[in-house]
Amino acid sequence: MAKPPFSLLIGKTALLLLLLPSIIFFLFFFIYPITQNLMLAFTNKSLYHYYDYGFVGLANFARMFSSSSFYTVLGQTLLWMTCTVSLQVVFGLSFAIFFTSPSLKGGNIYRGLLLLPWAVPNVVMIMILKGMFNPTFGVVNSILGADTPWYTSPFYAFLMIQIVNIWLAYPFLTLLLTGAIQSIPTEIFESAKIWGCSAFQQLRHITLPLVKPILSYGLLMTSATAFTQFPVIWLLTRGGPGGSTEVLMTWGYKEAFFSYNYGYHAAIAMFGALITIIFAIFIIKKGKILEMAVQ
Amino acid sequence: MSRMKTVVYQLIAISIIVLIVFPIYWTVITSFKSPRAGLFTTEFHLLPTNLTLEAYQYAFQISPIFLWLGNSLIVAIPTIVLLVFLVTPIAYALSRYRFFGRKSIMIMFILVQLLPIMIAAWPLFFIMKELHLLNLWGLTLAYIAMLMPFQIINLKLFFDTIPIEMDETAFMDGASLPRILYRIILPLAKPGLGVVLILGFMGVWNEYLLARTLLLDSSQYTFSVAFGELGAYWQTPWPVFAVYSIISSIPLLIVFIYAQKYLKKGIMRGALK
Lengths: 295, 273
Known about the structure:
The structure holds two protein chains of two kinds. Chain A is mainly α. Chain A has 13 helices and no strands. Chain A has one domain (54-289): MetI-like (MetI-like fold, Orthogonal Bundle). Chain A has helices spanning 12-40, 59-66, 68-99, 107-114, 122-132, 139-144, 154-182, 186-194, 199-227, 231-236, 248-257, 262-286, 288-294. In chain A, helix 11 (248-257) packs antiparallel against helix 12. Chain A is globular and about 75 Å long. The N and C termini of chain A lie close together (10 Å). The longest helix of chain B has 35 residues, at 238-272. By secondary structure, chain B is an all-alpha fold. The two termini of chain B are 41 Å apart. In chain B, helix 3 (54-62) packs across helix 13 and helix 7 packs parallel to helix 13 (238-272). Chain B has two domains: 2-59, no CATH class; 65-272, MetI-like fold. Chain B contains 13 helices and no strands.
């Protein structure tokens, strides 16, 4: 902006009045709890040391890294994340490409219907889908005509959380990529057609390269969300059967919710947050989006 | 050939939509079944037989669904109202002023959105306990803080699209700052404000973890928490559960229908720009 900045016209007091209420609120109810968590991670606060807890250094982290279930859970979290993110990209991208295709009449109506999963509250939908997968009275088994053990077999339980999460999560990437595809000027496709490009060539050489920056942003966002996913897994399987769908966040939550090991829980939550910060650094490196928002 | 192609495209589109809508369709159908027969019936009919309103009667007469919904509204409405009041001034300042630390503040607001909410859940529990706020009001405060970062950036990006000459002209004409902000800029930023309200409402309506952690008394449960508890034990007949689902979806559905045009344009701006 080359003009004389507006801030010269209105004084510093006004600026402070604009900023302070929200900053103070945010510091107190967002930043302060996080610093509290940071401190808790180095203490032995638990049910037995509720008031008289003290500093224990890195003991919580040592306990975490020496626990064998930590590595199992971490592996399962990565597996869960990889599967759900790939599925979301496959569905999000193919829905976005298919429903913006000029050969499809009424694409607008379909695109509206595609967002329907967002019109139902998450928890409600998770519980409905859980009921539909119920091995004894669920509709999925009666359609399949089989006794698939969705709740008790580790493989099928994993399949179930993947299906449910896809249903809940695909609209984000679909919406993001639909917007990206629609912002490509149609002239590009028209001239490609004149030059004799097949539909596949257009997809490979025009659509995909042009949506790539937005796709990589969406990829990082979905990965970070998947890595710290809690409600879907918690409500569907509680990490079961036999801990086979346990992920970092459900594992950590149990430490606080059932075992009252608040210090240990804080250390696990910290670890999860640190990983998301790594995702965040990648987002900064990818740059563009952040640059434009911050300008 | 091209006619064939059109038909194939339509068929694919319809089958995708059918798969997506099926759980919702199934819930509606189930809600019209009798709660006494419903829980353990395993036969599958695409079209319902023996429609009854028994489940609705049951849900309206003896269930606490309206208590839970009321609790959710008690949280959602103050959250979005206070959110607008807290978010507007800072978004305006970030858009219009150039001051030291401005970029760092914005980068922080963008990055903290990625942090798992779990990192704040138990500390918030201890803080709210100290403040005697382990109730719906405490939850409201936590939700506002949780929703602020995204909404600040989102609204800031909307303010950016309004030419600064608007403010300057008004200022030259002697308008005060609150007047410029609330009478001139905010009306122009209506779509942005719409997104704040809609996504704020959706955020509250969908949130589970904080509500589960901060609400101790079952009479204070928001419906998210209540649903999680119901579904963990399956003591509720399935048709009644379906009725609960439908009733609790109605507020979100209303917001959603109203929000469609914003969702298509607005979020793109907030998320992508």
